[in-house]
Write the structure tokens for this entry.
Amino acid sequence: MRPMKTDPAARRPRCRFRYPLPLLAALSLLCAAAPAHADKDADRARAAVQSGEILPLTRILETVAAQYAGDVIGVKLDRDDGLWQYEVKLLLPTGAVAKLEYDARTAALLKAKGRDLDQARKKP
């Protein structure tokens, strides 16, 4: 009995991209650059907390929990015009998303935006 011949092209999967290796190399370089920037930001934030320039995130989250009902879904630390600010995104019980901005040094609420925010505000 003769062995059956198969087409070599039928056995190997076809690649949809014309230049997969250069594309993967370029993507890996882009991904490698992002963590370096994130590490630098994390180091700046850590140094600001350790020097007492800003409050730790746990204090801000405690303040948010004391003031509003809802779940924190995002936090960002920014420095605008020399003032550190925590921007907190809060998922309210109604399903709306609110944006709260706190002074990172004092935990004072600077700005609050969002639908149904008044309903989510806790009584003092």
